[in-house]
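Chapter summary example.
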Amino acid sequence: ALTSGAYDYLTKPLDFDELHLAMERAMEHVHLKEENRLLRESLGKHFDRQNLIGRSQAMVRLLETVAQVSPSEATVLITGESGTGKEMIAGAIHFNSPRKEAPFVKINCAAIPETLLESEFFGHEKGAFTGAYKRKEGRFLQAHRGTLFLDEVSEMSPAMQVKLLRVLQEREFTRVGGDEVIRVDVRVIAATNKDLFREIEIGRFREDLYYRLNVVTLVLPPLRQRREDIPLLAQHFLRIFSEKNHKKMKGFTPQAMDGLLKHEWPGNVRELMNAVERGVVLTRAEYLDTGDLPLFA
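The structure predicted for these 297 residues follows.
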């Protein structure tokens, strides 16, 4: 019965306390599944291709490639400056793929100390090292049948690059401190803001790992190279933050929009988003003006 989908079983004579506990656990399980379903739907809307805004030629070509690569099983490498939206592209690929009902798991390789990165990837057994008080599942196992997004993949040490390469090749690993071989079905999407060819030349990134990740490459253009998208993005963020802060904003003054178009945007889309959010929070007018935006302060 369990292999056919039953949650639990009881033995006779029936213990009503045990029945009550089993029913509570079953209901918690049902609620958890429903919460996960709603979370996936919410994430799917957030990463929908409709939220990838742009009419510039560079963005049109990029979104066409996203549409082509999403249904495939290909490993994808996303490159571009910080703040260009690499995570949004990775999410759009996952939520428009056959794996969309499975987890989309993210890990920032630059944010985790080198000593903990292997455990974060593959998990560990209880007692594997000081502080390992119980067994932990790694991100690869969490992403089973789904997608694993490796952000800032160039920040891994050579030793971790070797271990990642082996998992990509063999689709199996062992937990830190364990000997059980665990097989996984995971699609990997990696991202970096560095020139990996340059990293290979100076010996900081493995060439074989690069070619394993680089089945399909997506290059995100910086915002200064697609200025025609700035008004669309600015209006999009204005609408989002107006609703979030319960304000009725109508738009930007001509002077403010002219300033947005002329700004170089070293922080790219993220900088624009933060500028608009700050303006919406601080303004008392219906139109954002230059004085409301931090780049003109």
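To summarize the output: The longest strand covers residues 187-192.
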